[in-house]
Every structure is written in C-alpha cells, then in structure tokens.
Design a protein that fits this description.
Elements: H1 11-33, H2 36-52, H3 63-82, H4 112-130, H5 137-145, H6 150-157, H7 161-179, H8 182-187, H9 195-215
Length: about 220
C-alpha cells in the first residue's frame, strides 16, 4: 500500500481494495449523511483522495481504518456544507458510562419462516437506525453493524474511546426500546450493498482515476 503517485499500474490493486471495503465504507458515509446518493458521491470522492494519498500510508492503522477515516472526513465535510448553521449534534454527551456490555448473539435460524421474519426486522431496523441522532448513528453502524472495535471507531470518527462507548450505549438503548432482541438478528444484513451499486461506484472511481492518470495528475 506504499504507493508514491497516481500511476496506471495501481488501478487493478486499488479496484480490488475498493471491492473489499466498499460495503463498510458506504455504510460509514451513509450513517453520517443519512442519504444514499450523497453517501455514494462522498465515497467516490473519498476514494480519489485515498488513491492520491496512498504514498502517505505508513501502516500505523489498518487499511480499512485508514480508508474509513478518509470517508468519514469527506462525509462530515459534506454535512457541514449542507448545514451552514452548524447544527451538528455536539460531540460531548451528558451521559456517562464506564463499561458497556457487548450485544448478545441472537438466533441464527435459517428456516424460511425465520428468514422472512428477519427481512422484515431488517427493514424496521434500518428505519430505526436512520432515526437515531446524528452523533449516535455513525457509532452504532460502525460498532454494531460493521463490528469495528471501540478504538477503531474512535480513530475513524476522531473522538475519545469513552465517547464511542457512551454513544453506542445510548444508541443501543434507543433501538432496544422498540426492537429488543431483534436488533442483533438483523444487524448482519442492514443496509445491504447490492452488486449493482458496488459495480457502479467502482466503475465511476476507476473512470476518474484513468482521467487523472491521462492528465498527468
């Protein structure tokens, strides 16, 4: 991953990298922007920034965490532009908690009846996640849906680990008021990343990369 410039021979490796992390990074952008189209645009721009900055990556963090931080920064910049009054939920929370227990595992039954019920629960979960306060939604998506560690989420969102624990606790409490044990059952499939969307994002980013290479950027 220690590249130094935009080069045509980087394309295949970078395309593979995008396909590997596309779903997690799309979810990260969407959790912040609350909109599919905006999240796709932010993801594409973030990929281009990552491609141009590959030479600066020194392995202090995992590649996925490094990419997620770039995506989160891009999404937050877009969010600030959308809301000139700066009405973003404050980073500090009045709620404090020393320890947060992990969400218990739910039933993984694969019967047709259970699968149908799980699909309905997933739809409801997506709506409930969308309804979370802006400060809690990215934390919940990264922590519960993508299963990043507390430290990884803290690094991506640039907040203290204690803040991550607090926000995750609050988000989980809000969701469990209506969903209870079904949360864990539906998390795996929340915000499905269809192959068509994956291909579209990759194609657009690769087209922009080839254009930059041709221009000698």
């Amino acid at each position: 991953m220690k590249k130094t410039a935009l080069r045509e021979d980087d394309s295949a490796e970078f395309e593979a990298l995008m396909r590997k992390h596309n779903r997690m990074l799309f979810r990260t952008a969407r959790a912040i922007l609350h909109d599919d189209a905006e999240a796709e645009d932010a993801l594409q721009d973030a990929y281009l920034k990552a491609y141009g900055a590959m030479g600066s990556f020194r392995g202090e963090a995992k590649v996925s965490t490094w990419l997620a931080r770039i995506v989160a920064n891009e999404a937050l910049q877009r969010l600030r532009k959308q809301n000139r009054r700066g009405a973003i939920v404050p980073m500090n929370s009045s709620v404090s908690i020393d320890e947060v227990n992990e969400i218990p595992e739910g039933s993984m039954s694969k019967t047709p009846e259970r699968s149908a019920a799980r699909a309905e629960i997933r739809k409801l979960l997506e709506k409930r996640i969308d309804a979370l306060p802006d400060a809690y939604r990215p934390v919940f998506v990264l922590r519960a849906v993508e299963e990043l560690s507390v430290d990884e989420v803290a690094e991506v969102l640039r907040v203290p680990p204690a803040t991550v624990r607090t926000r995750f606790f609050r988000a989980r409490s809000l969701l469990r008021e209506s969903l209870a044990s079904e949360i864990d059952l539906a998390c795996e499939d929340a915000f499905g990343f269809a192959g068509e969307r994956c291909d579209r994002i990759v194609a657009r980013v690769m087209e922009r990369i080839r254009s930059k290479v041709a221009d000698g950027a």
